[in-house]
Amino acid sequence: MPELVPPRYLTQTVLEAKDGMEVCATNNVVVYRGVGEQMGASHSERVDKALQRLCKRYDAKTVELSAKVLPPQFIRFLCKIAYGFYVSERGMFPLKDSPALAILKADRTDYSNWVGSRPTSAEGHASSLHRMSIEDIASGPGAGCEVVNISLFNKFGQTFQYTIVVRAPGWTERIEGT
To answer: What are phi and psi of 134, to 5 degrees?
Structure first.
């Protein structure tokens, strides 16, 4: 799971419409039978044993594991969750006020302006697998907006926290390149 830069709309950074997403880091965490493990240079004993069993079962010499995170699909996935959660909690609003909906419909590809990682309160995170909340904040460009914070896989000991700008009235007028 990638760790992203904070959504650029929430910072003082001048926004420029660009394609793609900015990644700070990736997390080497393997979830095996409901337990999350931080993976270092060598695999844990339990994962090694599971891979050996797979090789034996399928008469293979090695097993190669990889996950590819594609920006458009991953970001749209987060936007879909955030937009649906927002509407279920606070109700409908003018569609033109939502950069998350514009990304979801593939009208925009400047993902880092609207979706990113941002520290949120860790209180209560370990008690639930996933957690979502809505926050009203002032954005970098000086206007108010509403974001959905999504925290994933908390029970596995490694949290992945994402912030999505769901509602920002007048956002298209406040950014460069639109």
So the answer is: -115, 140
CA distances from 31 to 120, 129, 161 (A): 23, 13, 17
Q: What is the CA radius of gyration of the chain?
A: 19
Mind spelling out the 3-state secondary structure of 123-149?
Answer: CCHHHCCCEEEEEEEECCCCCEEEEEE
User: 94-97 long-range contacts, Cβ below 8 Å, gap at least 24?
Assistant: 94/169, 96/172, 97/167, 97/168, 97/169, 97/170, 97/171
Extract the tokens encoding 101. Answer: 């909906």
Query: From CA 152, how far away is CA 148, in angstroms rounded?
Result: 13
Separation CA 141–CA 115 (nearest Å): 16
**What gap in Å lies between CA 108 and CA 99, rounded to an integer?**
8
- What are the backbone dihedrals phi and psi of residue 80, each rounded to the nearest 5 degrees, phi first? -65, -45
Give kind and range of the element (H or E) at residue 174: helix 171-174
Per residue in 60-102, pLDDT (tens digit) is 888 776 666 677 888 999 999 999 999 999 999 999 999 999 9
Neighbours of 77 (CB within 10 A): 12
147, 141, 165, 168: which is closest to 16 by C-alpha?
Answer: 141
